[in-house]
Amino acid sequence: MDLNLKKITLSLFLSSALLCAAVENITSIKYDGMVHISQAVAKQLNEVKIGEPLDPVRLDKTIKTFFDQGYFEDVWADQTEGTVTFHFKEKPIISKVELKGFKENDQEAQKTLLQIEKGALYDAKRIESAKKRIVEALNQEGKIDSVVEVETEKLENGSMSVKFIANEGEEIIIQELKYYGVSGLNPKEFDKVAANKEHDFMGWLWGRNDGKLKITELQYDPLRIHDYYMQFGYLNSKVDEPFVTVDFNRYEAKMSYNVFEGDVFRVSDILVFQDTKVIEDQALLDVIALEKNKPFNIKTFRDDADRIKTKIADLGYAFVQVQPDLHQDKETKTVEVIYRIVPGKKVHIGNVIIAGNNRTLDRVVRRELFLAPGDLYSLTNLKDSRNALGRTGYFETNTIEEKRIDDETMDIIVQAKEAPTGNIQLGGGYGSFGGLMLSAAISDRNIFGSGITVGLNLEKSTRTKSYAFNISNPRLNDSDFSGNFAINNNSTKYDTYSTTSKGLSVGVGHRFNRFWSGYVGYNYSQNAYSDLSDANLTAEQVRYYESYAKSSVMTSASYDSTDDYYVPREGMSFSQSFEKAGVGADADFLKSRTTFGIYRGLKKLTDFDLIARYKARFNYVKDTGYLPINERFYMGGIGSVRGFQSYSLSPVLTDASGAPLLDTTGAVQKNGGTKTFSNSFEMSVPLVPEARMRATGFVDYGWIGDKSLTEIARSSYGISLEWFSPVGPLQLVFSNPLNAQSGDKITHFEFTIGQRF
């Protein structure tokens, strides 16, 4: 029996014994030590009445009622000269609660496990329930014989500190996993879908099976394997629950499944029936990927149902129901696939409600939506609207909820959580080349919530000065036109010469549809060399330090179907630009830049937020009159091949004999390349989801050359940390070259702020 309950029972017994002898009427009632219940509420709960003799039964019932409120450790009563006093011993308040040894960095998981907040009353039953939840969670992760201890401390202010200490048990490793009755498929293929897998040699390596037993997944694995069989036409396969034997001395397990495969069924026919015909049947059959006379595939079958739903929902039938069905013929081992469709009524959009945009203007959100009040519903437009909002980079997350008003009307509610889009950077330092340096930068991709991007950069050191300003509006006057303007002024003083570059650029773009856009711009810059020391330059070197002006026109086209600006999980991006210099100035060349990226979230396949990325860049420039050195291409650093210093990879200048030319500091003179190609393959996983931090492994490979693309080839590998920090998206890159050559400039660390990952 609970100690508190014993005390209450004893109190009731003593009170009852005293009251049996009491016959005088009650003249007053008092409450001593009561805090969490007001006297007004206490009077309503109290069945003891003034002016009546004290009734032991009513007194006992009242004391139990008070105790059942959950606020007290003990409740008792006494009577003195007609006054009945109820005494309360309140439960202490919990001012500190923590969980150590398990889920320490996952606040949401801790809340779910503990279910005890600061300010709650100390309750032994709630403490015990929390212990059980923690142990169950540990068991679900395969930690056997886990123990949870609770340390409590009464603080000086009377409150309680509660600490749960989780001592994780041992993990059980599946050393043997067998499938009996399997002949049509390779059992190794089941690893693609099953959560419990046999331990591989060196299973701790990424991509290998660690063999850890996942107890809670045991009941689902047979269903997953059965579903996998149905992807190959085995409609009547059966997979029994696994038989598991555990050696608790070594914490090792052996598992086995009994499998009945059955026959492979082929598709005999595919039929669609519309309750109300709203589209030609052939239009629906055209989106179906299942094929007659081919083995049935349950995954394709489900995807076809979704494609049919989308096809009809795009016609305005928001509440369409697609009811797939299968008719088996066991004699012929065929299956007839049937889709029954109930379109319902056409639905129009009522209101479009924007929520969560505390800073971003409503119109900035609405202009990215492809559905407006009065529009006919479209499922594709709804999805594309969600992706378009993600591509802006203004929001951390966004959802579009569908609120049914009636059979023909729907409101859509956009719930957006804004992301930090602006940052201020102040810095200083000392470099061996530039000496003391001070820098300041301010930028915002969504200034004042208008969707306009503004940036200002200032840098000053003993040898360098740099000033730059840019402003761009992706939707001029909320139209499909965009505009940008930028100016810059840079100067650098070297040992034997100085350079200055002043320029401006202006352009206008147009969005042709939700994915394609174009741009036309103009660039002008003056680039000058001064303070040349002729004594340190050869005649061949002088021509590489000629001042020039550049006047160029640029045009580009881009495609972007990704779902997020910083961390896309689906879609593709592509851009192609051409720049022609020689419009009334010295430089005369034609430059081409091509970029490509494809992104795939693999959560459905891995049950984990894994993202695969492939990025490629190809650049080419042709000399059509005069091509300055700094208009050529250089490789290395973030954006090409990491692990090598930015712009350090390039063909070199040579004299008539083929020997490399040296610059005024004695270093090899870089010539720049006329063509370069680099590509990256990346796999990104969440590192600290609560802090929006990810870890990404990458492999880079690139070529650069002047006469031939493959003159210089370099590759690298590494890991980058991607973090949405308080100052903006921050990327820390740790890399190593794979095939560095003598003279290469290596770097193992780089970082960026504010760029797309």
Summary of the model, kept short:
This protein is of the alpha+beta class and about 750 residues long. The chain is built from 12 helices and 34 strands. Among the domains are: about 90 residues, membrane protein fhac (Ubiquitin-like (UB roll)), CATH 3.10.20.310; about 70 residues, membrane protein fhac (Ubiquitin-like (UB roll), Roll); about 90 residues, Roll (Ubiquitin-like (UB roll)); about 80 residues, Roll (Ubiquitin-like (UB roll)), CATH 3.10.20.310; about 70 residues, membrane protein fhac (Ubiquitin-like (UB roll), Roll); about 55 residues, no CATH class.
Task: Give your account of this protein's structure.
By secondary structure, the protein is of the alpha+beta class. Among the domains are: 3-90, Ubiquitin-like (UB roll), CATH 3.10.20; 94-167, Roll (Ubiquitin-like (UB roll)); 172-260, Ubiquitin-like (UB roll); 266-342, Roll (Ubiquitin-like (UB roll)), CATH 3.10.20.310; 348-418, Roll (Ubiquitin-like (UB roll)); 421-473, no CATH class. 16% of the residues lie in helices and 43% in strands. The strands form 7 sheets. The chain has a 16-stranded antiparallel beta sheet with strand order 19-20-21-22-23-24-25-26-27-28-29-30-31-32-33-34, with no helix packed on it. Strands 9, 10, 11 and 12 form a 4-stranded mixed beta sheet that branches. Strand 2 (72-80) and strand 3 form a beta hairpin. The model is unreliable at 1-22 and 429-435 (pLDDT under 50).
